[in-house]
Amino acid sequence: MGSIKVQKLEKSFGVRNIFHDVSFELRRGERLGLIGANGAGKSTLLKCLIGDEDYDGGTFVISEGESVGYLQQDITYEDDVTLRDTMTAAWQDVLRLEGQLKDVEKQMQSQPDNEELMNRYAHMQERFEWLGGFEYESMSRKIIQGLGFGEDDMDRPVQSFSGGQKTRINLAKALVRRPDYLFLDEPTNHLDMDMLEWLEGYLLSYGGGILIVSHDRYFLDRVATGILELSHGTVTKYKGNYTRYVEQSRVRRKALENAYRKQQEHIHETEEYIRKYKAGIKAKQARGRQSQLDRLERIELAPEEATLHFHFAPAEGCGEKVLVLDNVCGGYGGRKLFDHLSLLLRRGESAALIGPNGTGKTTLLRMIMGEKEPDSGHITLGSRVHIGYFAQEHTELHGAWSVLEEIMNAFSYGEDEARNILGRFLFTGDDVFKTIDSLSGGEQARLALLKLFLEGPNFLILDEPTNHLDIPTREILEQALLDFGGTYLVVSHDRYFLDKITGRTLVLENKKLKEFLGNYTYYREKEREAVELQAQEAAEQGAEKTGEKQEEKRMSSEAHVEPDKKDAPPAVKKKPSYGTARKLEQIEMKIAELEATVKMYEFQLNQPENQTNPDKALELTGLYETTKQKLDEAYDTWAELSEKE
């Protein structure tokens, strides 16, 4: 089986060492999550692996004839290039290989006994099949639809799309090319919940090797088969998903600390012995122990990563009713986004506001903040409510100011006091003189959180607060919110974060607001239960209709009466209800995922190394049969729902 092998890779920028001993192997079928604090060198490592950056030492070897694909974040498009053009260009390797196959076919017709030609054709055809050559048009369509684009978007210039949409287009290009190894740098950015779930299903069925840089812990739990932790210039590999990594890393750290402590005790005792006897009767033994110490491989205990320290000040008291929405309607740019929304948020409650991209979540937050008036209805804040707002685009920061000026001007602090507070948020030394515009996304997010912390609000409104934050900082924010005694409303696509800190889930979809009295996982469970109940009801109604039709047919046959066809009204096909249409869409996505998984197992069963390994072949056969059964059940559910309407 092919693989990518990285051995002792090194990279520095001037005197700053980025990493110095990175070694790991990525096999086909593996999905490795690459994690680490912001600035650890994750994106730089990916760039070294694809050739965008030179590395200073070490080796990077890929199996002969295999390819690497990379999700590029910043791509420049010509003004007239459409989405259709972009997707067609992504298939050039497949189209080129298709032309080569046709050429070889012609040669085989004139040389039917040429074994070399037949072997070459078989190899090319296998490669063509892996690249999705027999289904590239339908696969391209599924990927585009899964990432939120419709047929109406295909002829739009790429330049006309938003920054988030362009990121999704770049992701679609990377997926469509179907390389043997896929490197993804923050692939979940700008994806809503449905897109995230679609991407997870697609990657789970991907037969190649995948290396993913991500801070999305829920995503890594669903997708990763292993975790690479990049810390202090080296990589440590852990088996399993993110949750297993957390458990293993804690155990490993504790074991390492114990071993380090015992070794230090041994070194101290040995040095005392040498000091005591080096000039006496036991000098020979002392020299022997010194030799042992010199040869001893010292255990190195890496220091803990620097983390910020903060908690929100105790929330001041306010009225029981913190926020009331009464039949609120609103839109943006002449388009109605939501209609007759009503909500009561009480003191101390924690709520998540979620929904597909473009449904108006940020617009609603701006109305609550008083930055925009609703088209109709009323928004009322409770007595003594003091709002603290975290804006997704950090509009509360002043780009031309320095970090130090931002805090001194906003809170009338002296320089020393401002520096002390900034140090708690990891802004030290000359960093405080950087302008806001020159900061990274993670640094701007930290500064915005600091300002929020200093304002002392009792009602927090947070719009994508975890964007650009690394995992350690997200965990600190989670704990700060759990300790916060006030009320908060959070818009986020970070499902792990929402599961941990919210007790209500508000879903803004199709211009309405639905409420679930639980966290994100609870909401998804209830949605799945609704889908299953809908399918069960459809199946029962289908069975009843079948029974009724059979009875009618029997009675009609006995009576020998032919109905007057010209008097029968024409059949009217009802438009599916929203609920049924939504369930059909979800089942179709599940079918696409299962179809891809079945193909993956078929591909693996045909690999020589699996055919010669009875245990592996038996395992794969079982997985194939189980998935095939699930696919058949999904087809049946789809058919029953379709018949219902």
Give your account of this protein's structure:
The chain is of the alpha/beta class and 645 residues long. The protein folds into 5 domains: 1-66 and 180-240, P-loop containing nucleotide triphosphate hydrolases (Rossmann fold); 82-167; 258-295; 321-523, P-loop containing nucleotide triphosphate hydrolases (Rossmann fold, 3-Layer(aba) Sandwich); 525-549 and 576-644, Helix Hairpins. The chain is 48% helix and 18% strand. The chain has helices at residues 42-50, 83-90, 92-110, 115-130, 136-146, 163-177, 193-204, 217-223, 242-277, 283-295, 361-369, 403-411, 415-424, 441-455, 471-483, 495-501, 520-559, 578-605, 608-611, 614-644, and strands at 3-13, 16-27, 31-35, 57-62, 68-70, 181-185, 209-213, 226-231, 234-239, 321-332, 335-346, 350-354, 376-381, 387-390, 459-463, 487-491, 504-509, 512-516. The protein has a 6-stranded mixed β-sheet with strand order 5-6-7-3-8-9, sandwiched between helices. The chain has a 6-stranded mixed β-sheet with strand order 14-15-16-12-17-18, with helices on both faces. Helix 7 links the parallel strand 6 and strand 7 (209-213). The two termini are 48 Å apart. The model is unreliable at 560-575 (pLDDT under 50).
